[in-house]
Prior knowledge:
Elements: H1 2-21, H2 29-70, H3 72-96, H4 104-112
Amino acid sequence: MLYTSSLLRWLQRKRYQYEVTFSLYMLTSTEKFIFNSFLVLFLSMIIIAASLYLPEHVSTIMRRAWFYWAGDEAVATSINSVSSSTSAARSIARDAGYVTASTPEDVLERLGSL
C-alpha cells in the first residue's frame, strides 16, 4: 500500500512538472490533447528514424575512422577478404544450381536468353 501511494504521488508530481514546464496548465483539455498528440507523433518519428538509420550511420563513421587510423592497406586487405568470400559464395551457389552473374553483361545476357 505504501509503495502504491508513493508511486502514485510521484507520477502526479511528474505530470504537474510536465504541465508547468510546457505551460500546458493554461490550455483546455482539447488543446492539451492536440499538443500531446503532436509531441508523441514527433518523438515516435525520431525514435523510428534513429533505430532505422543510426546503426548504418555509426558503421559508416567507424569505417571512416578506421580508414583514417589504419590507412589504405587495411582497407585493401578487408576488400580482398570480402571479394574472396564473395567468390567462394558464388562457387557454392553455382555448385548448388543457382544462377549467378558476376558482371552486368552476364546479367543482360541471361535476361536475353529468357
